[in-house]
Amino acid sequence: MNIFKRLFRIGQAEIHAAVDKMEDPIKMTEQGLRELRADLTEATEAYAKVKALAIRAENDQLQRLEESRTYGEKAILIMQKAQSGQVDLIKAEDLAREALSLHRKYYLESEELAVQVVALQRSSREMLQNTEILKENMEKWEKELRTLKARMKVSKATEQVNKQLAHVDSNGIIAMLERMKSKVEDQEALAKAYGEMSRERHSKKDELDSLLKNDSSSIEKDLQAIKEKLGIS
């Protein structure tokens, strides 16, 4: 199976150099993960088949062992019948030899099957362990891929913004801002001048009114003095 070779290959340090040379590392990584998922499916099916073979071999081994035990018991039984006179001794010995032959045959087959069962069970355990490791690694790699894809989107957006900023005529913008600032300051100064002129006009008017008011009061006082002097009430 090529699944474990690929798993070993991905774990090599040279993979980093290979990724750097890829035109599109994200797509290549996604393709690699798709291949690994397909291999994982094949590995799972292969494990199921090996597990089934182990179960089948174990059942056959138990069956052969049971048959061996049965023919061993038949050999004893036929000799017991010969001992009691129920069966001719010579015939009983021939039948007992045949039963013992089958007893030995099935016993040897059960021993061979027992070796196969051990080997198949060991293989199935190793395959299960490897598939579990591959599952865990794939989950980790898929998570890392999602993180890298998100980081790549951010980096591309940042690159685009920085690229746009790099092409901006910063000196032209600064000069334009300085002109706008100067124009605003001129407008603020003009508005302030108008305000001061308005306040000056109001101040002079108030001063004139104050003077006129003071003169009127003085005239009234003088007139009242004359009237008192002349005795006019």
How would you describe the oligomerization state of the chains in this entry? Answer: single chain
What's the number of extended β-strand segments? Answer: 0
Q: State the major sheet.
A: none
CATH class: Mainly Alpha
What is the CA-CA span between the terminal residues? 138 Å
Mean pLDDT across every amino acid position: 80
Number of domains: 1
The percent range for helix content is: over 70%
Work out the helix count. 5
Write the CATH fold name: Helix Hairpins
Instruction: Enumerate the spans where pLDDT stays under 50 for 5 or more consecutive residues.
Output: none
What share of residues are in beta strands? under 5%
Shape estimate: rod-shaped
Family: Belongs to the PspA/Vipp/IM30 family.
InterPro entries: PspA_VIPP1
Keywords: Coiled coil
Region (Disordered): 194-214
3D structure, described in words:
The chain has 233 residues and is an all-alpha fold. The protein has one domain (3-168): Helix Hairpins. Helix content is 92%, strand content 0%. The protein is built from 5 helices and no strands. It has helices spanning 3-10, 14-21, 25-83, 89-166, 170-230. Helix 3 runs antiparallel to helix 4 (89-166). The longest helix is centred in the middle third of the chain and has 78 residues, at 89-166. The mean pLDDT is 80.
